[in-house]
Design goal:
Number of strands: 6
Radius of gyration: 14 Å
Strand content: 15-25%
Length: 154
Amino acid sequence: LQTTLIDGSTFNLAALKGKKVMLVNTASDCGYTDQYADLEKLYRQYKVGLEIIAFPANDFKEQEKGDDNTIAAFCKKNYGVTFPIMAKSVVIKSNKQNSVFGWLTNPSGNGWNSKAPSWNFSKYLVNEKGELIHYFDPGISPLSKEVINAVTAN
């Protein structure tokens, strides 16, 4: 799968083979926005074997109204985000849905999961082989035992 980084360049997810990858739909004006800080802590602690990718989306109560430049500046200034941020896109099921989220939410593609993001900061974890292995609801902290155990499991 390929997607577009917030700077407009193409990002090929195949380059992440051999790492676990957490894919998170994000928003700058949400009750869960502070999870950016926890995602950054998780990323810094486990970045040898983990990549985190943010997918800003305005799909839930218009909580991501900014353009890509505004989103990038917000994440860097307020949370020191160093993990990749994709271009703003649609993550809920529609004809405009980001292809990565199309795969994450289609059991015929990912093998088991049909759960679309229920809100901003839904988290999907893919293993080193590119297989979807976990879905975490927005209310689950990126630093929870449940997430850490999934990230560190062999």
